[in-house]
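thread: overnight batch results

M.L. [08:02]
morning all. the overnight job finished for the chain we discussed friday. pasting input first so we're all looking at the same thing
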Amino acid sequence: MGFSMPGGFREQLDDGYASHNHAHAQQRGQVEFLAVDEERRNAHHDNAHARPDGVGDADRDRAHHQNQHPECNRITSDQQQQRQGSAEPFHGFHGSSGDDFCADGDSQQIISVHGAFLFVRLRILATCDGGLINSAPMNRTLYTLLFHLGLPLVALRLWLRARKAPAYRQRIGERFASGLPAMQRGGIWVHAVSVGESIAAAPMIRALLLQYPQLPITVTCMTPTGSERIKALFASEPRIQHCYLPYDLPWAAGRFLDHVQPRLGIIMETELWPNHIHQCALRGIPVVLANARLSERSARGYARFAKLARPMLAQMAWFAVQTEVEAQRFRDLGARPECVAVTGSIKFDLSIDPQLLERAAHLREQWQATQRPVWIAASTHAGEDESVLSAHRTLLTSHPDALL
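M.L. [08:03]
and the structure it wrote out:
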């Protein structure tokens, strides 16, 4: 199953985007998206104008977006003239069908993320005004300075971790964008910080491989366990290339991006790094936050550094968020509302190994739980077990045969 990037993009790529074409720098980034599910995508190839009788959630979301943001559905003749002949960031980006996504200079079909696999047509109507990011260069400079000053602590942390996990001693150069493996350029970059994110990203990555058979996909992480998991998941896929993501230093991030030259960046969950996102903006690389989540505590932390976080979030092209509560937190922190959509958790798209399902069925039989409700409290932390037991006692009043 393949899929394309869901809609909602309204690009804000920073003033550095003007380095590709100065005519773009004073325009507002707007995007129109069309999302259809997989069955209707196939039907579209048979009849470009055919529409199913039923209207899905994606259509309602699209219609609502267009009603609320009519400016995203139009482009002025002046903007069209300015864009013609310009260096689009996705120029020459082809889909699996062989279509040139930007043959007309403004339309690219790229990637989809989660929920029910969505297919989308991304239309970049214009690049955006880079003034917004100019509000935070000093904050980012201060952040970068503090990061450099903290490098001895980073080295100490690596050394301490290496005492328990020797793999942390290996490939240290990659963390500074030095000694990166040879890679094909011009593909898609996916960042999954560790094991859990790598597993969650797997169905999306496999769909991308099917949707874009001519493109390499670079998967980065930050931990040795995540690295091993990525290698195990895609051992038989030659188009998957992997390395550690360098630390969030502008020169390291820039060197990595110049080495890989991705056409699109997809970051899993909430691994937000100001310098990486800024360096992507300078190169005209849209960045998507997939399976995004943001706890109340994390939101308060970002709010304390609003002058750094707000421009960073405004630069990002799209947020595919797990819940509406979290989506509102992203909006409150500075993400543009039209770029935020609730898509659910990508973990529901995981393909479960049939052997694992068989083992689970045997376990339920052993527990005598084939006909009784079962719930699992997994990965609990100190102090949470008491709350779980209390909840289970309450549950037993209405479901006396419930199993914890």
